[in-house]
Design brief:
Elements (H helix, E strand, L loop, with lengths): L1 E8 L5 E2 L15 E8 L9 H4 L21 H7 L8 E6 L5 H11 L4 E5 L4 H10 L7 E5 L3 H11 L3 E5 L16 H18 L3 E6 L11 H5 L2 E7 L5 E9 L7 E7 L2 E4 L18 E8 L2 E13 L7 E4 L3 H15 L6 E7 L10 H14 L7 E4 L1 E2 L5 E2 L4 H11 L3 E5 L3 H5 L6 E5 L2 H16 L1
Parallel strand pairs: 4-8, 4-9, 5-6, 5-7, 7-8, 15-16, 17-20, 20-21
Antiparallel strand pairs: 1-2, 1-3, 9-10, 10-11, 11-12, 13-14, 14-16, 18-19
The protein binds thymidine-5'-diphosphate (TYD) and magnesium ion.
The site of thymidine-5'-diphosphate has 15 residues, from helix 3 and helix 4.
Amino acid sequence: MKQKNVYICQNCGAVSPKWVGKCPSCQQWNTYVEEIVTSGPKNGLSPNAFNEVKPVKISEIQTNTAERIDTNNTEFNRVLGGGIVPGSVILIGGEPGIGKSTLSIQIALNIPQKTLYVSGEESASQIKLRADRIKKTSDNCLILCEVTVEIIIPAIRQANPSLVIIDSIQTLRTQNAESAPGTVTQIRECADMLIRFAKENNVPIILIGHINKDGNIAGPKILEHMVDTVLQFEGDSSHVYRVLRGIKNRFGTTSEVGIFEMLSDGLRQVSNPGELLIHHHDNDTPGVTVTAAVEGLRPFLIEVQSLVSTAAYGVPQRSTTGFDAKRLNMLLAVLERRCGFRLNTKDVFLNIAGGIKINDPAMDLSVITAVLSSDLDIAIAHDVCFAGEVGLTGEIRPVSRVEQRIAEAEKIGFKKIIISSAHKKNIENIRHTIDITTVSKIEEVFRLLFVRRKTVQE
Ligand code: TYD
Ligand code: MG
């Protein structure tokens, strides 16, 4: 076998014979690391092997759809599409300290079947301490502290578990690759061996993966292509709420999310998010509005807070938590051009309650009204909520699942919901006690909420 030194992009796995500053394939800077690769007839097939493989008729293929493993965790099952498929490989990515190890040890302790938790990061006693915090123990949960795949695979064979958890893929190493642990070649090789093992023995494996600073799972992008399911565990580590989001799923949808709350004794499932993310203010405060949002398939109400103040320095600040900064800039530009607000001289801060990132365009209308409310210093009544996307011309666009949003807002006790006039048809047939106001332009929203009340105040 021949060995040679090449440079490999740690982000996308592209290979170059010499060092390059900017990866020509993924455009990232400073991602090339020198690695040693061995080439040669490593997995060479004998000529006879070609005669042994035969295509089969699709009608004759047996399927075993039923036997998903129930994780005893509704939120986790929900994201997977109803439990773990035997032989599947699930990659869970997330920032350090977000709770990946906590989630996986909780699953290992809750599953009635035998599980093997392989840790390359923590010692057995550290894992035991964590399990003690969760106040749970199980005779069916085995712990192995090891980093070499060549030792791990025979250990899995011997233990014969129904589920294997690897914490984390970046800490593993294999003798098949010469590079340091954590490099692309090592991750790819280790993952490949584990995935092959999972498929051949029908044992599901959960791989935990670190993510790098721009939010992608560290290591080659191909790792995401190799596994069956990719889940992202996100949230703000200074807040208690965590969202488990499906990014790829060969056995279910990716539109569902799982919501958890990090408590002192582990992660609690939040099965009914509803009014979780709204504070109940005694009096109406300027700059606070509520969105009837939908994340995954579930509706809930979430508070948007904004603060607009005169810029202290020359360049006004725009700062957001839980909301896309580019989207905020776009909405501010729309406000400026459509309603004539001079926001380019003001600092704008925007905060979505709970530190959860919501990917729901229906937040737009709340963001705009929160900004206006803070800028004008006029509060919006606390029993009013919003759901609408805002377009570049200032039009209020329809959103998905509007009936569900209305029903949830009504259930929680909101008196009024403001939505796009494009929904008029959808709401004709639903029974509701909540007041539904439809709007088609930002100007209309502005007049509705602020102008009349302003003249009354004067
Ligand atoms: P951890 O699962 O170690 O994160 P990761 O594996 O993603 O790096 O979680 C670490 C954080 O979670 C740490 O800041 C402590 C907190 N935590 C709790 O709040 N409650 C608990 O019961 C546990 C086990 C951890
Ligand atoms: Mg960990």
